[in-house]
Protein 1
Amino acid sequence: MIASFFQWLNDTQGLNFSVFYDAFDRSRFLTGLWTTTYICVVSIIASMALGLIGVWLAGGNSRLGRLVVRVYVQFFRNTPPLVQLSFFYFAVASLLPTVSDGFGGQSPLVSGTGWAIIAFSLFAGAFNVEIFRAGIEAVPSTTVEAAESLGYTRLQLYLHVVLPLAFRICLPALNNNLINLVKTTTLAYAIGVPELLYAASQIWSEVFNVREMMNVLLVTYVGLVAVLVWIMGRWERSMRIPGYST
C-alpha cells in the first residue's frame, strides 16, 4: 500500500521517492542505513573507552602517559576529521600488508569501514578525554578525600566514587559530542564507504531525484540523532540522584 502511494505520487506529482517503491533502491538505502548505524554504534563505544583510558592516564603518575594523552588530544582536536580519515585510509593503510581474498587477488588488511571507525573513534575520543576530565575535576575534593581515608585504591576510587559522579556532571557535554560523531560519519563517503550519503548519492545519480533523496536523508539523520538523544536522556534520568545538583 505504501509502495503504491509513492508510485502514484511519482506518476502524478513528479515526486520520485524511489526508495519506497523500488526494491533495488530500497535495498541500497537500507544497506547504507545499516552501515551508518554500525559505524555509529562501534565508534560511540570505542570513543567512550578511549576517553576513559585517556583520562585515567592523564591523571596518573607516569609522565610519559600524560605526554601521550596530551599529544593525542591536541592532534585530534586541532585537525579536521576528514584529513584524519584520509591520512589513515591513504597513508597508514598503504604501509600495512594485504591479505588474499580467496580468489587470487589481494585485499587491504583493514576495510574502508574499519578505517572510518578507527578515525571517528579517535576523533571523538579526544574530545571525550577532555569531557571526562572536566567531570572528574568537578567532583568535590572532600568526597575524594573521604574515599581515600577509607582505604580506597586509585582504581576503586575511580570506579565506585569519582566516575559515577563525574558521569552525571559530564553527560550533557558527552551527549553533544556523540551527536556530533553521528553527523561526522557522513565523511566516510569520501573513502567510498557505503553509508547513507553514499547510498543516497548512488540512487540520485541514476534516478535523478536529488531533491527527494536529500529530504529522505535529512529525515533519516534526524531520526538517528533523535534515537541517540532519547537513549542519552534515559541514561541521564536513570543516573540522577535526588538532592544532587550538577
Protein 2
Amino acid sequence: MRPLSIEGAWVRTPRVHRDDRGSFHEWFKEPEFTGATGRTPVLAQANCSVSRRGTLRGVHFSDVPPGQAKYVTCVRGAVLDVVVDLRTGSPTYRAWEAVPLDEDERNAVYLSEGLGHAFMALTDDATVVYLCSTGYQPLREHGIHPLDPALGIDWPADLPPLLSPKDAAAPTLEEAERRGLLPSYEECARHRATVREGSAA
C-alpha cells in the first residue's frame, strides 16, 4: 500500500492474474494493511453502490469519534475516487487527491476517520464496494458540496454531474466550518492513536 499525499490515506495496486478464463486478484490483505496503517482492520458494514455515468456522490464524512474509515474499490466500470482533507488544523486541510478506480487495474483506496470521500462514475453501471469501520449512523453523517469552488476538485469537464438532492443541498466547506461540523486534526489523531493501541492490545 502506498500513502497518498494526504496523511491517513493509502492506495493499493494489486497484482491481477489474467488468463482466458478471466482474472483473479487479492483486493485486501490484512498483514499488508496492518503494516501500512499500523492498525488492525475493523469491519462493521460493507456497502455496494451502482451508479450511472456522471453520478457524483459525496463529499461525505462522519463525526469523530467514532468516525468511519473506508476501504474502497471499483469492481465494474470506472470511477474517479477523491479523498478530501476536511480536518481543521491539518497541514493539508482543504487538499484533495484523486485516484482512478476501475475494473482493470483494481486499485483500492483506504481513508482514515475524518477524511472526506467522494467519487464520480465514469461509466454506466459503475459498481463501487467499500468496507466500513462503523455502521451507518444518520445523525453522525455529514456532507460538503462536491462542486464547492473552495475545494476546487477537478472533476471531469465532459461529464455533467448528477447529484442526489441531499448532496446538492450540502453546505460549502466554509459553511460547514462555521457551523462546527468539521472534525479537527487533533481529535482525529487522538482517535487513531486510541484505535492503534486497541489493535496492539
Protein 3
Amino acid sequence: MIGGRSVLAVITARGGSKGLPRKNLAQFRGEPLIAWTIQAAQAANSIDRLILSSDDPEIIETARALGCEAPFQRAPELASDTAASVDVVLDAADRVPGYDIVVLLQPTSPLRTAGDIEATLTLMAEKGAPGAVSVSEAPCHPYLIFRRDAAGRLSPFVEKPADIGWRRQDLPPAYRVNGAVYAADLAWLRAGRAMCKAGETAAYEMPVERSVDIDTLEDLRAAERSPI
C-alpha cells in the first residue's frame, strides 16, 4: 500500500514481438528477460499484488515458476500489435478488482529496480497526483531536432526561444518517458484512458544508465554491456 491505498502491479508480456522475436523470454545475464521485472516488483514493498497479463502459455509458465501470479490468459484481441497498453492494464484490473492504484511494468526495462518502483509511487502520493511515470534525460534535446522539406531545407520541430543559445548547457532540461514504471489511480485511468497526461502526471527521474528499453537484439546486447 501507499498512502493507505492498495496497489496492483501488472506485468504485460505478450508472445508476439517483431523487433526481437520472443523477447520477453530472451536470455539476459543468465535469466529470462521477464525475470528481472518480476524480481524488482517482488522486492517493492508498496505492491500488494503482482500479476502477469500474457497470451502466451510459455511466458505464463515461466512467470509462475518465478513466483509471479498469472490468474488468466489474455484474450487474443488484446495481444495484437495494435492493442493499447491502457486496455491491457484495465482488462487486468477488471479481472482482479479491489485495488486503488495500478502499476504497469514492462519486461523490456530490465535495469529498473524495486527502488524505482517505490520512488514513483511515493512521488505520486506526495504530489497528490493521479498518476506518475518514470522519465530520463532526453538523448537529444527537442530544440535540436529538425524536419527536412522536399528541397532539403531544415525547419525546427520545436521553435527555440531567441534568448536561448544553441549550446547544450544553455538548453532547459528535457525528459522522455522511459517506459520503466507507470502508476495511475484506477478511477482516473478508467475515466481518461491514458497512462500519462500533460499537466497531471508526476515524473520520477531515473538515471539514463538504468533507462534501457529493449526492443531489438541490438538493444539487448547494449544492455548486456551496461556496467549496472
Protein 4
Amino acid sequence: MITNPNRRQMLGWLGAGASFGALTACGADPVEAKSFPIRKSEAQWRKELSKQEFWILREAGTERAYSSPLDKEKRAGTFVCAGCNNRLYSSRHKYDSGTGWPSFWQPIERGAVGTSTDYKLGYPRTEVHCADCGGHLGHIFSDGPKPTGNRHCINGVALDFIPA
C-alpha cells in the first residue's frame, strides 16, 4: 500500500539527500585545491602524459587490478611519480598484498606523498597523492603489514620504476 509521506518524512528525505550531496561535493577533489611545487596547466599535463597516465594522475582514475607489470616487480629500486619523477616508494617497502595493485607499507620518506579524504564512493577513504605535483596515486588502507599496518594501494600507471 502506498501512503503519502508526511511533512516530517519529506524533510528527513530532503535533509539526507542534501547531506549526501554536500559530502560528495566536499570530498570530490580536495587535492586540486592545494598548491603543489610542480604546477602545470591541463594542456601541459595532457601533452606530457599518456592518456592512461593523465586519467589516473590528473582525473583520479583507477587501473584494472592485475594489469600493471609493477605489481610483480621484485627488483631493488625506487618507484617515482610518472608525472614529475618525485621519489615515492622504495622496493624495500613493497609487498604482495594479493589485491592486484603495487602495494607498499610506507612511502620512501616522510613528505614524499600527501593524503586527502575522498568521498567519491559515498564514504570516506584516504587518497594518496604525489606531494610534488598532486598526482593521484591510489588509496591507503589500514590492512597492511607491520610495522605501520598500512597498505598504500597504488596504481602502477602512476609510477615509473628505477632499478638500483
